[in-house]
Amino acid sequence: MRVGLAAALLISSAAQAQEINIYSEFQRFDPFGRVVAQDREVRPREILSPAAPRNGHLTVHVVVNAPIGTNYFLYAGQSPQDVLQIKIYREHFVRCGEDFCPELLTEQHSPAFGAMPESFRDIPDQDTRCYLFDIWIPPDVPPRRVRIEALLKVGIWMVAPMEVRVIEPRVPDTSRLPEVEDIAPIDAPSSATAQRQLFRYINGLPPEMPMTTVRLRELIQRNAAEDMLVAKSLGIRGPELNLMAWNPFVFPELGAEWYLRARDFIYRYEPEWR
Question: Could you tell me which CATH number the domain at 18-170 has?
Fold first, then answer.
Protein backbone atom coordinates (compact mmCIF):
# COMPACT_ATOMS: atom_id res chain seq x y z
CA MET A 1 0.00 0.00 0.00
CA ARG A 2 2.82 2.40 0.94
CA VAL A 3 4.72 1.54 -2.23
CA GLY A 4 1.64 2.31 -4.33
CA LEU A 5 1.12 5.61 -2.52
CA ALA A 6 4.76 6.57 -3.00
CA ALA A 7 4.54 5.79 -6.73
CA ALA A 8 1.39 7.88 -7.04
CA LEU A 9 3.08 10.81 -5.29
CA LEU A 10 6.08 10.54 -7.60
CA ILE A 11 3.83 10.61 -10.68
CA SER A 12 1.90 13.56 -9.28
CA SER A 13 5.15 15.41 -8.55
CA ALA A 14 6.42 14.73 -12.08
CA ALA A 15 3.18 15.97 -13.61
CA GLN A 16 3.42 19.22 -11.65
CA ALA A 17 7.08 19.73 -12.63
CA GLN A 18 6.33 19.89 -16.36
CA GLU A 19 3.74 21.97 -18.19
CA ILE A 20 2.65 22.57 -21.75
CA ASN A 21 0.39 25.48 -22.65
CA ILE A 22 -0.93 27.27 -25.73
CA TYR A 23 -0.89 31.06 -26.10
CA SER A 24 -1.72 33.58 -28.83
CA GLU A 25 0.94 34.70 -31.29
CA PHE A 26 1.15 38.00 -29.35
CA GLN A 27 2.39 36.43 -26.09
CA ARG A 28 6.13 35.78 -26.31
CA PHE A 29 7.80 33.93 -23.44
CA ASP A 30 11.41 34.18 -22.32
CA PRO A 31 13.61 31.16 -21.41
CA PHE A 32 12.49 31.39 -17.78
CA GLY A 33 8.73 31.08 -18.19
CA ARG A 34 7.86 34.78 -18.14
CA VAL A 35 6.00 36.77 -20.77
CA VAL A 36 8.44 39.31 -22.19
CA ALA A 37 7.81 42.78 -20.81
CA GLN A 38 6.54 44.24 -24.11
CA ASP A 39 3.82 41.57 -24.45
CA ARG A 40 2.48 41.41 -20.90
CA GLU A 41 -1.30 41.38 -20.72
CA VAL A 42 -3.45 41.99 -17.65
CA ARG A 43 -5.93 39.34 -18.77
CA PRO A 44 -4.31 37.09 -21.41
CA ARG A 45 -6.64 35.47 -23.92
CA GLU A 46 -7.38 31.79 -23.34
CA ILE A 47 -6.83 30.01 -26.64
CA LEU A 48 -9.59 27.42 -26.43
CA SER A 49 -11.62 27.69 -29.62
CA PRO A 50 -10.03 30.14 -32.07
CA ALA A 51 -11.64 30.87 -35.41
CA ALA A 52 -9.67 30.57 -38.65
CA PRO A 53 -10.66 31.38 -42.26
CA ARG A 54 -10.16 28.94 -45.08
CA ASN A 55 -6.97 29.34 -47.11
CA GLY A 56 -5.55 31.16 -44.09
CA HIS A 57 -3.30 30.54 -41.12
CA LEU A 58 -3.69 30.29 -37.38
CA THR A 59 -0.45 30.59 -35.40
CA VAL A 60 -0.07 29.88 -31.68
CA HIS A 61 2.81 29.59 -29.25
CA VAL A 62 3.29 26.24 -27.53
CA VAL A 63 5.30 26.76 -24.34
CA VAL A 64 7.03 23.88 -22.54
CA ASN A 65 8.12 24.32 -18.92
CA ALA A 66 10.30 21.63 -17.35
CA PRO A 67 13.12 21.28 -14.80
CA ILE A 68 16.73 21.47 -15.94
CA GLY A 69 17.88 18.05 -17.12
CA THR A 70 14.50 17.06 -18.61
CA ASN A 71 14.30 15.38 -22.02
CA TYR A 72 10.96 15.29 -23.85
CA PHE A 73 9.13 14.77 -27.12
CA LEU A 74 6.61 17.26 -28.53
CA TYR A 75 3.86 16.03 -30.86
CA ALA A 76 1.18 17.81 -32.89
CA GLY A 77 -2.11 15.94 -33.15
CA GLN A 78 -5.49 16.63 -34.72
CA SER A 79 -8.88 14.98 -34.82
CA PRO A 80 -10.16 14.24 -37.40
CA GLN A 81 -6.75 13.62 -38.89
CA ASP A 82 -5.34 15.35 -41.97
CA VAL A 83 -8.00 18.05 -42.16
CA LEU A 84 -5.58 20.90 -41.44
CA GLN A 85 -1.85 21.24 -42.09
CA ILE A 86 0.31 21.84 -39.01
CA LYS A 87 3.92 22.94 -39.07
CA ILE A 88 5.95 22.90 -35.87
CA TYR A 89 8.66 25.54 -35.50
CA ARG A 90 11.23 25.73 -32.77
CA GLU A 91 11.67 29.32 -31.59
CA HIS A 92 15.27 30.41 -31.02
CA PHE A 93 15.92 33.10 -28.44
CA VAL A 94 17.73 36.33 -29.25
CA ARG A 95 18.56 39.36 -27.16
CA CYS A 96 15.60 41.73 -26.89
CA GLY A 97 16.57 44.80 -24.87
CA GLU A 98 17.29 43.49 -21.37
CA ASP A 99 15.46 40.26 -22.05
CA PHE A 100 15.47 37.27 -24.40
CA CYS A 101 12.73 37.03 -27.04
CA PRO A 102 11.81 34.04 -29.22
CA GLU A 103 12.36 35.09 -32.80
CA LEU A 104 14.21 32.87 -35.31
CA LEU A 105 12.32 29.77 -36.45
CA THR A 106 13.45 26.27 -37.39
CA GLU A 107 10.89 23.79 -38.69
CA GLN A 108 10.65 20.53 -36.71
CA HIS A 109 9.18 17.14 -37.44
CA SER A 110 6.55 15.63 -35.16
CA PRO A 111 7.64 14.35 -32.72
CA ALA A 112 10.25 17.01 -31.97
CA PHE A 113 12.88 16.06 -29.40
CA GLY A 114 13.87 18.65 -26.82
CA ALA A 115 16.06 18.99 -23.75
CA MET A 116 16.14 21.52 -20.95
CA PRO A 117 18.13 23.73 -21.21
CA GLU A 118 18.90 24.11 -24.89
CA SER A 119 22.49 25.07 -24.02
CA PHE A 120 24.23 25.07 -20.66
CA ARG A 121 26.68 27.59 -22.10
CA ASP A 122 24.23 30.18 -23.47
CA ILE A 123 21.24 29.99 -21.08
CA PRO A 124 22.25 27.64 -18.25
CA ASP A 125 19.21 28.35 -16.04
CA GLN A 126 16.64 27.91 -18.81
CA ASP A 127 13.47 26.05 -17.81
CA THR A 128 11.23 27.08 -20.73
CA ARG A 129 11.33 26.28 -24.42
CA CYS A 130 8.99 27.79 -27.00
CA TYR A 131 7.51 26.45 -30.22
CA LEU A 132 5.03 27.64 -32.82
CA PHE A 133 2.20 25.62 -34.27
CA ASP A 134 1.56 27.24 -37.65
CA ILE A 135 -1.75 25.85 -38.88
CA TRP A 136 -2.97 26.25 -42.46
CA ILE A 137 -6.62 25.69 -43.33
CA PRO A 138 -7.01 24.39 -46.93
CA PRO A 139 -9.47 26.43 -49.04
CA ASP A 140 -11.85 23.53 -49.70
CA VAL A 141 -12.36 22.49 -46.06
CA PRO A 142 -16.02 23.06 -45.14
CA PRO A 143 -16.75 25.08 -42.00
CA ARG A 144 -16.32 22.72 -39.07
CA ARG A 145 -14.45 22.17 -35.81
CA VAL A 146 -11.10 20.38 -35.59
CA ARG A 147 -9.43 19.42 -32.31
CA ILE A 148 -5.73 20.28 -32.18
CA GLU A 149 -3.49 18.91 -29.44
CA ALA A 150 0.02 19.84 -28.37
CA LEU A 151 1.27 16.64 -26.71
CA LEU A 152 4.26 16.47 -24.37
CA LYS A 153 5.86 13.12 -23.52
CA VAL A 154 8.14 13.16 -20.46
CA GLY A 155 7.66 9.64 -19.14
CA ILE A 156 4.01 10.63 -18.78
CA TRP A 157 1.79 12.24 -21.39
CA MET A 158 0.57 15.82 -21.04
CA VAL A 159 -1.75 17.60 -23.44
CA ALA A 160 -2.74 21.18 -24.26
CA PRO A 161 -5.86 21.06 -26.47
CA MET A 162 -7.76 23.61 -28.50
CA GLU A 163 -10.60 23.42 -31.00
CA VAL A 164 -10.10 25.28 -34.26
CA ARG A 165 -13.33 26.66 -35.70
CA VAL A 166 -13.01 26.72 -39.48
CA ILE A 167 -15.22 29.58 -40.65
CA GLU A 168 -16.91 30.37 -43.99
CA PRO A 169 -14.72 33.25 -45.32
CA ARG A 170 -11.71 32.40 -47.48
CA VAL A 171 -8.48 34.35 -47.64
CA PRO A 172 -8.19 35.65 -51.23
CA ASP A 173 -5.12 34.89 -53.32
CA THR A 174 -2.01 36.50 -51.80
CA SER A 175 0.40 35.85 -54.69
CA ARG A 176 0.11 39.37 -56.14
CA LEU A 177 0.60 41.24 -52.90
CA PRO A 178 3.80 43.25 -52.52
CA GLU A 179 6.51 41.56 -50.46
CA VAL A 180 8.46 43.82 -48.13
CA GLU A 181 10.29 43.63 -44.84
CA ASP A 182 7.70 45.67 -42.98
CA ILE A 183 7.99 44.39 -39.44
CA ALA A 184 8.35 46.32 -36.22
CA PRO A 185 11.59 46.18 -34.18
CA ILE A 186 12.07 43.06 -32.09
CA ASP A 187 11.92 45.06 -28.86
CA ALA A 188 8.47 46.44 -29.79
CA PRO A 189 5.32 44.57 -28.72
CA SER A 190 4.44 41.61 -30.94
CA SER A 191 1.25 43.41 -32.00
CA ALA A 192 3.24 46.31 -33.51
CA THR A 193 3.87 44.32 -36.71
CA ALA A 194 0.15 43.51 -37.07
CA GLN A 195 -0.64 47.15 -36.32
CA ARG A 196 1.26 48.21 -39.43
CA GLN A 197 -1.00 46.08 -41.63
CA LEU A 198 -4.12 47.38 -39.88
CA PHE A 199 -3.03 51.00 -40.42
CA ARG A 200 -2.39 50.29 -44.11
CA TYR A 201 -5.94 48.98 -44.43
CA ILE A 202 -7.40 51.98 -42.61
CA ASN A 203 -5.56 54.25 -45.05
CA GLY A 204 -6.77 52.35 -48.14
CA LEU A 205 -3.45 50.61 -48.88
CA PRO A 206 -3.07 46.92 -49.75
CA PRO A 207 -1.52 44.59 -47.17
CA GLU A 208 2.11 43.54 -47.53
CA MET A 209 3.42 40.01 -47.21
CA PRO A 210 6.80 39.10 -45.70
CA MET A 211 9.67 38.23 -48.01
CA THR A 212 10.53 35.18 -45.90
CA THR A 213 8.97 33.26 -43.01
CA VAL A 214 12.01 32.57 -40.83
CA ARG A 215 11.10 34.94 -38.01
CA LEU A 216 8.14 35.09 -35.67
CA ARG A 217 7.38 38.68 -36.65
CA GLU A 218 7.14 37.65 -40.30
CA LEU A 219 4.41 35.11 -39.53
CA ILE A 220 2.57 37.80 -37.57
CA GLN A 221 2.86 40.09 -40.61
CA ARG A 222 1.54 37.35 -42.92
CA ASN A 223 -1.40 36.56 -40.63
CA ALA A 224 -2.38 40.22 -40.31
CA ALA A 225 -2.15 40.65 -44.10
CA GLU A 226 -4.51 37.69 -44.52
CA ASP A 227 -6.90 39.28 -42.02
CA MET A 228 -6.96 42.50 -44.03
CA LEU A 229 -7.70 40.57 -47.24
CA VAL A 230 -10.65 38.88 -45.54
CA ALA A 231 -11.84 42.28 -44.25
CA LYS A 232 -11.76 43.70 -47.78
CA SER A 233 -13.57 40.67 -49.22
CA LEU A 234 -16.35 41.20 -46.67
CA GLY A 235 -16.65 44.93 -47.40
CA ILE A 236 -15.50 46.11 -43.96
CA ARG A 237 -14.68 49.81 -43.95
CA GLY A 238 -11.37 50.96 -42.52
CA PRO A 239 -12.83 53.40 -39.96
CA GLU A 240 -15.28 50.73 -38.80
CA LEU A 241 -12.44 48.27 -38.17
CA ASN A 242 -10.33 50.95 -36.53
CA LEU A 243 -13.13 51.79 -34.10
CA MET A 244 -13.57 48.18 -33.04
CA ALA A 245 -9.85 47.75 -32.42
CA TRP A 246 -9.22 50.97 -30.49
CA ASN A 247 -12.56 52.14 -29.04
CA PRO A 248 -11.57 53.50 -25.58
CA PHE A 249 -15.19 53.41 -24.36
CA VAL A 250 -15.61 49.70 -25.10
CA PHE A 251 -12.00 48.76 -24.31
CA PRO A 252 -10.59 51.14 -21.67
CA GLU A 253 -7.41 49.04 -21.34
CA LEU A 254 -5.51 48.56 -24.58
CA GLY A 255 -3.64 45.41 -23.50
CA ALA A 256 -0.90 43.54 -25.33
CA GLU A 257 -3.36 41.38 -27.29
CA TRP A 258 -5.48 44.29 -28.51
CA TYR A 259 -5.15 43.19 -32.16
CA LEU A 260 -7.22 40.08 -31.43
CA ARG A 261 -10.26 42.35 -31.09
CA ALA A 262 -9.79 43.50 -34.68
CA ARG A 263 -9.47 39.88 -35.78
CA ASP A 264 -12.58 38.89 -33.83
CA PHE A 265 -14.55 41.68 -35.51
CA ILE A 266 -13.45 40.58 -38.99
CA TYR A 267 -14.21 36.91 -38.43
CA ARG A 268 -17.65 37.60 -36.92
CA TYR A 269 -18.67 40.22 -39.47
CA GLU A 270 -21.95 39.62 -41.27
CA PRO A 271 -22.13 41.57 -44.54
CA GLU A 272 -25.55 42.70 -45.68
CA TRP A 273 -25.35 40.72 -48.93
CA ARG A 274 -25.08 37.35 -47.19
Answer: 2.60.40.10
